[in-house]
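Work Package 4 report. The design task specified in the project plan requires that, given a folded chain encoded as C-alpha cells, an amino acid be chosen for each position. We show below one input record used in the internal validation round.
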C-alpha cells in the first residue's frame, strides 16, 4: 500500500535467537520504509535490496556468518556446563523513524521469552531494565551491556546518526546517489542487531546458575 504523506519513514530491524538443548537458531530481517532489505534464516544472510556492491556484501555476509557460528559454539560449550531444560527466546527490535517535520525517533527493545526485558535509552546511551521478575538476570545483562562502547556509544551513534541519515537520504535523494548513502545499513545490521546476541550467553549462564 502507498505510504501516507503524514506517516514517518522507517528503518526497522528484527532479530530472534532461540536456544534449546544447546542448539541455537537465528532468524530475522531488516526493512527500509516498509520494503524488505535484508533477511536472516539460520546462517543464511541475504541482501534483498542492492545496497552494497556484490564484493562488499560478500565480505559483510561472511562476517555475520562467522559471528553466528562462534556464538552457536559458545552456547554449546556453556550448555554442557549448565544444562537448561527449557527453550530460551531472545528478540531484538531496533530502528528509527523520520517524521515529515524533520524530527526523528530511535529505539531498541529486547524481550526474553516473550516478556519485555531491556530497552536502550538512546539520548544518554544507557540500558534500562524492563524484566518484571528474575531481577538478577536483568541486572546482570544491564551491567554487562553498559561495559562496552559497541553496546553504548557505538549503538547510540548508529541509531541517532547512521540510521536517521539513511532515512534522510531516502527522503531527499534519488537514484544511485541515494543508494550509495545506504552503505552503512549492513554495518548497522551487524552492529545493532548482533551486538546483543553475545548477551544471550550471559543470560543463559545467569538463568542456569549464579550471576
Amino acid at each position: 500500500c502507498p505510504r501516507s504523506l503524514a506517516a514517518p519513514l522507517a528503518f526497522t530491524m528484527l532479530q530472534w535467537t532461540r536456544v534449546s538443548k544447546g542448539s541455537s537458531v537465528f532468524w530475522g530481517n531488516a526493512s527500509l520504509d516498509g520494503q524488505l532489505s535484508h533477511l536472516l534464516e539460520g546462517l543464511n544472510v541475504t541482501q534483498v535490496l542492492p545496497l552494497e556492491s556484490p564484493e562488499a556484501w560478500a565480505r559483510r555476509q561472511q562476517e555475520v556468518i562467522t559471528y553466528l557460528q562462534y556464538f552457536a559454539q559458545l552456547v554449546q560449550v556453556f550448555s554442557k556446563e549448565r544444562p537448561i531444560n527449557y527453550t530460551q527466546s531472545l528478540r531484538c527490535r531496533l530502528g528509527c523513524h523520520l517524521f515529515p517535520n524533520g524530527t526523528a525517533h530511535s529505539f531498541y527493545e529486547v524481550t526474553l521469552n516473550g516478556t519485555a526485558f531491556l530497552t536502550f535509552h538512546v539520548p544518554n546511551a544507557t540500558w534500562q531494565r524492563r524484566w518484571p521478575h528474575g531481577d538478577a538476570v536483568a541486572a546482570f545483562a544491564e551491567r554487562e551491556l553498559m561495559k562496552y562502547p559497541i553496546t553504548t556509544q557505538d549503538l547510540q551513534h548508529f541509531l541517532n546518526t547512521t540510521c536517521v541519515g539513511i532515512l534522510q537520504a531516502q527522503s531527499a535523494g534519488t537514484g544511485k546517489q541515494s543508494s550509495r548513502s545506504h552503505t552503512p545499513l549492513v554495518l548497522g545490521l551487524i552492529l545493532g542487531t548482533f551486538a546483543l546476541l553475545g548477551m544471550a550467553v550471559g543470560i543463559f549462564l545467569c538463568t542456569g546458575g549464579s550471576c
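Residues 9-174 form a domain with the Murine Class I Major Histocompatibility Complex, H2-DB; Chain A, domain 1 fold (CATH 3.30.500.10). Validation will be extended to a larger panel in the next phase.
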